[in-house]
Amino acid sequence: MALVRYNPWQELNALERHINGLLGDTRVPSARFEKGFIRVPAAELQETDDAIHLKLELPGIDAKDLDIQVTENAVQISGERKSESKTENNGTIKSEFYYGKFQRVIPLSARVQNTNVTADYKDGILNLTLPKSEQEKNKVVKVNLQPAG
Predict the structure, then answer these.
(1) What CA–CA distance (Å, rounded) separates 40 from 56?
(2) Rg for the chain (alpha carbons), in Å?
(3) DSSP string, 109-125
């Protein structure tokens, strides 16, 4: 008797092929089945000496549907992408858009002044500027070098 290694992802791949067959020839990327079926916005972090700049991709979401909370150590963004209700008598609608609620917590590499955060939201891109706390800006560590002897 031969041993066969069980692959749990094989069942998800079979489900994806089945759903693709139901939707026709549209290609649903396999990333749709990653991260526990939950879509989270893509993020980009850039750290400078004075601040951390966080950029999030949030297409199709109104600013009023976003909730942004900043602590000294993390940023939490939650919101909802609402579906457009259309009624059509003829034809079929096929959609690969994700509608629904999402939440993402992004840990920060340095402590920030959460009372001085600035935000800009334009063309589906959220830009947060998170100024570092004074402790983090002035953090210099002196290294003692012992002569080799």
Answers:
(1) 10
(2) 23
(3) SS-B-TTS-EEEEETTE
For residues 45 and 54, is the Cβ–Cβ distance under 8 A?
yes
- For the stretch 43-53, pLDDT in tens is 999 999 899 99
Sign of the Cα torsion 114, 120, 124, 125 reads negative
**Which of 51, 81, 55 is CA-nearest to residue 66?**
81
20: three-class secondary structure by DSSP: helix
* 8 Å CB contact between 32 and 17: no
Q: 128, 68 in Cβ contact below 8 A? A: yes
**In the structure, how many helices (H) and strands (E) does the chain have?**
2, 7
Q: Phi first, then psi: what are they for 14, rounded to 5°?
A: -65, -40
Instruction: Assign 19 to helix, strand or coil.
Output: helix
Which tokens hold the place of 96? Answer: 């690969």
Give the pLDDT confidence of 123-132 residue by residue, as tens digits. Answer: 999 999 999 9
**How far is it, in rounded angstroms, from Cα 36 to Cα 28?**
16
CA distance 131 to 110: 10
pTM above 0.85, yes or no: no
